[in-house]
Amino acid sequence: MIEDQLQYPIRNVFMWLRFDGKNIDIRRLTFTVGDSDIRLSGSIADWLEAPRAKLVVQSSQINVESLKLKASSGSSSSDSFPVTRSWWANGSAEATLLIDSVYYGRFLLTGLSCRVRFERETLTVDRISGDTDDGHLGGRVILNTPKRGPQSVRSMFGVSGVPVDRLFSLIDEQPRVSGWMAARGEVQAELNQEGLFRSSINSRRPITIIIQNGHLYSTLVISKVLLLMNLPALLKGRTDLTKDGLPLDRLKVVFGVDDGIIKVSEFLLDSPVLKISGTGQYNFLDDKFDAVVVASPLGQYSDLLKSVPLFGKLFAGERRGFDTAIFEVKGPAKDPHVAYLPAESLMAGAKGTAKLAFDLLVNAITLPKEAFSMTDDNSPVEQDEVQKETKGL
What number of helices (H) and strands (E) belong to the chain? Predict the structure, then answer.
């Protein structure tokens, strides 16, 4: 039974159906599961042999937690509902979803709508549209569920106006960053019983994340860079970097994923304390960083930072403000090794990686509008635009 697979029981069921030979006319079907309520109407043609459903699903609220399945006892997700799966083997379903609000933990979407289609072991969710706290979400998801072989998923998404701390609270009790996030990208991967094949994760186009007006908290690489410059102690009494985090005006990250390797082409941080750029990669299969970070003390504390030995030369000469302190990042994510590099690394370090990071920083300082714009067409994430782009998936 379906109810046996759910963590919360199905309650308040009401059905008004009309059977006409092989067809079912669903005048009304309503029920609740935990905090979620569902209203369904539509029709199912040829429901005995090859059902073809056309439905409209509505809800005033969906709590994703209440729709979770019980912990698996070892069977795969494709075997969770064997009778239903067999019944729909030759069938198809189309549905329009209209949901007033969807929430999961502290994350909330309102006015969510999408079109869902299931046919020939492929589930497609497209025309996804919903409102965030101060922006919009759009995109498309395609899930292939063959009877044999690995399942696969690919998605395209665009989102803006999301409180990033609420989003990351879904996976971390103490978020490492706060602020307002916009993001865009396209990802595909294979699935097994345990979840994602990490080595199969690939991005079909660059993923861009921009966060504004927030703070960086426990981010190990940046925290170690700040410690090497002794900034927490130097700025004590002015700003508490340990307790309040590093304030940020803008943070931009552009990266791709290629068979388990995250390749960061742009990392740009615009903070009142200092400016930081970086480039490199992280192999999350081997848990190894190989990156370069560049910092320059432009901002409201520039006079105070003259006392930092690494920055001593930054305030002299014709290139004032463009000389930088360079750091190499190696090793595992939980304890990366961050080391200061000499200035010669601009020309010879890591096959030009240091020079690329330096050029990114110069670009961010001289052309901030262009440097911190969204990748692709340099426009904000909008619903109609994302839907137009997803048609080709």
Answer: 10, 19
364 C-beta neighbours (distance < 10 Å), count: 22
Q: Are 184 and 376 in contact (CB under 8 A)?
A: yes
What confidence tens digit (pLDDT) does each residue in 120-142 have?
889 999 999 999 989 999 999 99
CB atoms within 10 A of CB 83: 9
Q: How many CA atoms lie within 13 A of 291 on its CB side?
A: 30
Distance CA 338, CA 115 (A): 47
Cα 53 to Cα 4, 10, 112, 120: the distances in Å are 24, 22, 21, 14
**Residue 345: CB partners within 8 Å, gap ≥ 6?**
292, 326, 328, 354
What does the alpha-carbon distance between residue 226 and residue 61 come to, in Å, rounded to a whole number? 44
- How does 337-353 read in b/e, with b if 16+ C-beta sit within 10 Å? ebeebeeebbeebbebb
Distance (Å, whole) CA 229 – CA 288: 24
156-177: per-residue pLDDT in tens?
Answer: 999 999 999 888 777 777 778 9
Please check whether residue 91 is in contact with residue 24, taking contact to mean a CB–CB distance below 8 angstroms: no
| Torsions phi, psi for 282 (to 5 deg) | -135, 120
Say how far apart CA 212 and CA 372 lie, in whole Å.
10
pTM of the model: 0.83
Show the CA angle centred on residue 321, arms to residues 318 and 323, nearest 5°: 80
Secondary structure of residue 384 in the 3-state scheme: helix
Give 118-181 as a 3 state SS string. EECCEEEEEEEEEECCCCEEEEEEEEECCCCCCEEEEEEEEEEEEEHHHHHCCCCCCCCEEEEE
